[in-house]
Design a protein that fits this description.
GO molecular function: pyrroline-5-carboxylate reductase activity
Distance between the termini: 34 Å
Order of helices and strands: EHEHEHEHEHEEHEHHHHHH
CATH architecture of the largest domain: 3-Layer(aba) Sandwich
Number of helices: 12
CATH topology of the largest domain: Rossmann fold
Oligomer: single chain
Number of strands: 8
Largest sheet: 8 strands, mixed
Pathway: Amino-acid biosynthesis; L-proline biosynthesis; L-proline from L-glutamate 5-semialdehyde: step 1/1
Strand order of the largest sheet: 3-2-1-4-5-6-7-8
Number of domains: 2
CATH superfamily of the largest domain: NAD(P)-binding Rossmann-like Domain
Strand content: 5-15%
CATH class of the largest domain: Alpha Beta
EC number: 1.5.1.2
Structural class: alpha/beta
Helix content: 55-70%
Main location: cytoplasm
Radius of gyration: 21 Å
Keywords: Amino-acid biosynthesis, Cytoplasm, NADP, Oxidoreductase, Proline biosynthesis
Length: 270
């Protein structure tokens, strides 16, 4: 990123995780600016990460080469309206991590000529284990794409898509995906307690099993289907459990759930 400066509008959990991830990967804190209306929040961020802070969004926008918009979607229009003149003049790379806010929205609010990268991160980015889909609007050059990838790549894996509509699928799979796994964990903990295990043991067993299964899937050359088959002995305990899942239409329910999430993402973007 050479000596380019990166600014964050909004100092919430995702923004501070991105800043912390960049610092952990060798980006000097002096190259990072953050704005937020809460002075207490800024003091906390400054003490934790030693980045520059300001309560005025314009002060940050006037200084940086890349501007990460990390405010709630319902606040985006008013925030962009305040930034429009500075962004139109300086034309920093604008990186949006707001769900449901399209490139067309951002160009309406900021100006047609602004280079924009729209991103869909997920909450595991808070622990540097995220998965982020990115889409670069027309007018974004390779160096700006590299900068966006480095910012979002500081908290996990990044995936580029050639059309913006693909981000609706990303939202349905990885954006909402952590909640699907959390639901399975909840259900498995409840099932463990129903089988007589105490709550603390049930929770630890389930979370460690989830973590171990994910690590095994990530590090193995075999796909999840093969790993499942290796655990499943014919006529054994795992086979008995999986038969119940299959008879209940588990795969079909997952397909329907992801389709519903995508449809809602498209509605919100519209």
């Amino acid at each position: 990123m050479a000596q380019q400066l990166i600014g964050f509008i909004g100092a919430g959990n995702m923004a501070t995780s991105l800043a912390g991830g960049m610092i952990a990967k060798g980006i000097r804190p002096a190259r990072i600016w953050m704005s937020d209306p809460s002075r207490d929040r800024l003091d906390e961020v400054s003490q934790q990460h030693r980045v520059h802070v300001a309560t005025d969004n314009l002060e940050v926008a006037q200084r940086v080469d890349a501007l990460v918009l990390s405010v709630k979607p319902q606040m985006m229009a008013s925030v962009c309206a305040d930034l429009r003149s500075v962004v139109a003049e300086r034309r920093p790379l604008v990186i949006s991590i707001a769900a449901g806010v399209t490139v067309a929205n951002l160009r309406d609010w900021l100006g047609e000529e602004v280079p924009i990268v729209r991103c869909m991160p997920n909450t595991p980015a808070l622990v540097q284990a995220g998965a982020t889909g990115l889409y670069a609007a027309e007018g974004v050059d390779d160096s700006q794409k590299a900068l966006a990838a480095q910012v979002l790549g500081a908290v996990g894996l990044t995936f580029w898509f050639d059309n913006e509509q693909s981000l609706d699928a990303v939202t349905a799979v990885s954006g909402s995906g952590p909640a699907y796994f959390f639901l399975l964990m909840e259900a498995l903990i409840d099932a463990a307690k129903a089988q007589g295990l105490d709550a603390a043991t049930a929770r630890q067993l389930v979370l460690q099993t989830a973590w171990g299964a994910a690590q095994l899937a990530i590090t193995s050359e075999a796909g999840p289907d093969v790993l499942r088959q290796r655990v499943t002995s014919p006529g054994g305990t795992t086979a008995a459990a999986l038969e119940v899942f299959e008879e209940a239409g588990f795969r079909e329910h997952v397909q329907a759930a992801v389709a519903a999430a995508r449809e809602r993402s498209e509605e919100l973007a519209g």
